[in-house]
Structure prediction request, 370 residues.
Amino acid sequence: MKIRQTIGVCRYVYNLYLAYNQTNYQSGGRFVTANEFAKWLNHEYLPNNPDKAWIKDVSSKSVKQAIVNAQTAYKRFFNKQSGFPKWKKRRDQDMKMYFVKTNAKTVIRCERHRINIPTLGYVRLKEYGYLPQNGCIRSGTISEKAGRFYVTVLLDEGITVNSNSNKTQGIGVDLGVNTFATVSNGITFEKINQKQRIRQLEKKLRRAQRRLSRQYEHKKLRRERLTEHSANIERNVLRVQKLYQALQRKRMEYVRYVVIVLAKTKPEFITIEDLNISGMMKNRHISKAIAKQNFYYFRTWLLYVCRKWDIEIRIADRFYPSSKLCWQCGSIRKDLTLRDRVYKCTCGNVIDRDLQAAINLERCSDYKIA
Prediction:
């Protein structure tokens, strides 16, 4: 298939760029940019290596974008925004096929059931009506996950803001582990893993992983090369990938549901806390529960929806004592721990810890607007 071939070439060129810069650095050379590497690839590497002529069989735009992505990974490492760039592997399926308009007059047409991709032609879509048909598509990417291909497009389209003057009082939202979200008006949303369908998928995933692990152990006992996977192992790897993909979709669907419910209350503002997710993930006791709650996706989707609904998003400071501050007398209880789920104050205030945090976030005056 042309898409798999393009993704494979992009993965090879991406790794080649990383290796070229590492070798150049070890020999005392300077950093090679994406444009310089593209010139070396076309004028030196391919003419001297005729067996690598299959790199020219795919779209040059996709190859150039893979080189640019590798350069971006290096720059993020230099700016201390991420770790050192890693090699792309076939099983990770994190490479994408990039397509763009070949010239200014070319139009990437999109209909309800198909999209016209340069160098491929019209490709039929399995799910209808998701891609907008009115906007002008500038570029897009095709990715493969668990045996399925997904297309994402970048287009110019006017965004209509649903401004509404009939807004209610602002709310505060506290995210937690025992409950996914607690709102200052008393509404609570159960954590994601309590949904029945998610529990069923996690049970199937555990069984599929055990089955796959036994197959790998059997190959080790027979002293076979693990790189030469059998058809049964390939089939079970795909089964595990599909279960991971289904779990991810269900969790994202639940997060979007919570955001829509919050937006439909038409609050004047929504205040959330600036959580230190990376620091919380270092705690081995709660790291797994934190990872399953999808806090980052909640914040990203909340910003997107509230921008369309003209709702102000306030971000409270990370060190704001939302849970330790009594909402009645204003005293701070410094000995409060994560095990204390009920807040008890000397003034007689007895309230759920998460609900009090949401109320304090609603009343917070030290915030920044997202």
Observations:
- The mean pLDDT is 86.
